[in-house]
Amino acid sequence: MPASRKAIRIEAILWLVVTAVAIGLAALLLVRSASQRAELRAMQAEKEALAAQVAELETRCAEYEKWTKNQPGLLPWEVEDLKKKGLKNPVADLIADLQAHPELVPYKGVLGGTMAFGFPEKIYILTEKYVLAYFEDGHIAGWILLEYGVARGGKITWRVIDSYLD
Fold it and tell me: How do residues 111-127 score in pLDDT, each as one tens digit?
């Protein structure tokens, strides 16, 4: 076989190999591209779901803020007065002190339970004089209305006004 024919044949084989490699790479890129498009669609769906959750949480937060603004509580000058009497953070200090006095609950626990003010978010400082608090022992629960006083030095005293079991 003459050298020029051999060179043409080698060149044709090389072109075939290069074309086959190019087609293989193109196929690989197409498959990879389809996979990435599917992944992108899944990520977009997840993004939309998360955006919906964020919107729902923002709505809930706005509703909660509206609700809490209408709740009774200490007025700014009452907070300052309680600070002058020795409470560093009057609301937190009152809640913590009440939680330290489960003996104020006028009901005994049942089935081995012990009455306690276990949920600080369910202790409401109503005014500079009254607190409404939820109590439970894990089996039975109720509410208690208390009067409190704060002496100089931050000493808190409690008096039960009324209570009931749910």
Answer: 989 999 999 989 999 98
Give the position of tokens 């087609």.
23
Smallest Cα–Cα separation from 152: which of 100, 79, 84, 74? 84
Q: How distant, in Å, are the alpha carbons of 3, 104, 105, 135 from that of 117?
A: 100, 10, 9, 5
pLDDT tens column, 68-79: 665 678 888 898
The one-letter code for the residue type at 104 is L
Structural domain boundaries, residue 129: 76-165
Say how many domains are in the chain. Answer: 2
- Look-up: residue for tokens 């809490």? 68
pTM of structure: 0.59
Boundary-marking domain end, from 30, 46, 70: 70
Give the separation between CA 7 and CA 13, rounded to whole angstroms: 10
Neighbours of 148 (CB within 10 A): 17
pLDDT of residue 1: 59
